[in-house]
Amino acid sequence: DQFPKWNPINRETNLGRLQLRYGDALDAVDLFVSTVDPGKEPPLTTANTLLSILAMDYPVEKLNCYLSDDGASKLTFDAVNETSGFAKKWVPFCKKFAVEPRAPEAYFAQKADFLKGQVQSSFVNERRNMKKEYEEFKVRINHLVSDFQNVPEDGWTMADGSYWPGNNARDHPGMIQVFLGPSGGKDVEGNALPRLVYVSREKRPGFNHHKKAGAMNALIRVSALLTNAPHILILDCDH
């Protein structure tokens, strides 16, 4: 008797209209990305995750990306540095032409007609140039990975010759580096970029660091001081 009275309703969020409707009322978001071992989690994969976040269709002043490197790897740090440089080219390209997906590896690998829906005459040339830029970026990342196969006897050093604090992954101070953001430069078209922060929490022998849960707690404390967004989204480095 009840079945004929049912009136099922399907609701779907229209993401394309979200910013148009709410605009400046959108809340800030802190996105947490976690990684530990670049040998098991390739730096190029992590880089693509970061690039897709930085290119999100969201107000840049309300978008903050934090990478937790729980292995204190100099390779991961250098890869993030390279990624921040490439983001200055990739982010404006994505937003100018509304390309999807916004991870460059997935975008350039797709077999679909990349011209579908494109009306700007400059798209073909700019896409070709961006693909070349990405291939050069991949080579630089691959070069970093190759260089880090042989660990120096005295450990890694930084660009200024100082000792890399994370040479002992189980005994090192905390490290925080802001790569992009209000004081981190603009993209190639002069626009602001979302904040990108590298974090490797302090570790000392004899303490239980609680693995990923501990790493996320450290990011919560760092982000509370820097951005303190009301919303947090946690991602793995291969999302």
Automatic annotation (TrEMBL):
GO molecular function: cellulose synthase (UDP-forming) activity
Gene Ontology biological process terms in this record: cell wall organization; cellulose biosynthetic process
Any one of the GO CC terms: membrane
Binding residue positions for UDP-alpha-D-glucose: 34, 40-41, 70, 211
Location of the protein in the cell: Endomembrane system
Keywords: Cell wall biogenesis/degradation, Glycosyltransferase, Membrane, Transferase, Transmembrane, Transmembrane helix
One Pfam family here: Cellulose_synt
Primary location class: membrane
Coiled coil regions, renumbered to chain: none
Binding sites annotated in the UniProt record for Mn(2+): 212, 236
Domain of life: Eukaryota
PANTHER family associated with the record: X-BOX TRANSCRIPTION FACTOR-RELATED
The protein's name: Cellulose synthase catalytic subunit
Originating species: Mesotaenium caldariorum
